[in-house]
Amino acid sequence: MNMIRSTAAALAVVAMSAHCGAACAQETPWAVRLGVLDLHPANKSDGGGPLDLPSDAVHVNDKAFPELDIYYAFTPNIVAQLVLTYPQKQEVTLEGTDIGSFKHLPPSLVAQYHFLPGQTLDPYVGAGVNFTWISSVHLLNGAADLQKTSFGGVLDVGGDYNIDKRWFLNADVKYVVPLQSDVSVVGVGKVTTAKLDPLLYGIGVGYRF
User: Fold this and answer.
1) Which of 29, 34, 51, 150 has the most CB atoms within 10 Å of its CB?
2) Where are the domains of the chain?
3) What pLDDT digit, counting tens, does each position of 8-25 carry?
4) Residue 81: is its pLDDT beyond 50?
5) Rounded distance, CA 200 to CA 195, Å?
6) For residue 46, with 0-12 CB atoms within 10 Å meaning exposed, 13-18 middle and 19 or more buried, which class applies?
7) Residue 191 CB: number of other CB atoms within 10 A?
8) What's CA 94's distance to the chain center, in Å?
9) What is the pTM of this model?
């Protein structure tokens, strides 16, 4: 009788496991997203200075580029997002005249609060920090340079559209402020501060592990 009961119990466990299958696979707190960011700088700059430049004379072009996001969910509601890309080349104009280019690497780390985790549509808000590294500066044939680093805050609003438990679509808007760089000229020194303070529009597709 004991053997029959043991066998029946074992069969019940096997049947439950088979029925559970992939649906009972343990989910991890990690997720990734591949997407596109569309950068729109504010293009504000100081006037006056040694060269008596007009206000907002320095402009940096809008640009779309790929991004890779890595997510870690501390709880269903609280999620950290690391935004990564590769160095992006930007064109610069001064009073409408092309003066060269530079590259920037702008990783951001954002904490998000998700209002409806697990629902089909899950809106969120977030805040975090941005660090931008500027390199490969080629302005006025080498006569001008930029400050190489900028730290700023990030505000974030967006939403996930959950296709299923693993796959999701995402759209959001980030605002980075301040993101700025001092512009200097050889033999003159600092001539203005370019204040980019961009809006970043993002779309992508993600996967939860």
Assistant:
1) 150
2) 26-208
3) 344 343 344 444 444 444
4) yes
5) 15
6) buried
7) 21
8) 28
9) 0.85
Q: How many residues are there in the chain?
A: 209
Per DSSP, the three-state class of 16 is: helix
Closest C-alpha to 170, from 179, 182, 161, 180: 161
Q: pLDDT tens for residues 169-207?
A: 999 999 999 999 999 999 999 999 999 999 999 999 999
Give me the residue label for tokens 């649906």.
23
**Angle, CA 90 vertex, CA 96 and CA 147 arms, to 5°:** 95
pLDDT per residue as tens digits for the range 48-73: 999 999 999 999 999 999 999 999 99
> What b/e sequence results for 93-114 when a residue is b if at least 16 CB atoms lie within 10 Å of its CB, and e otherwise?
ebeeeebbebebebebebbbeb
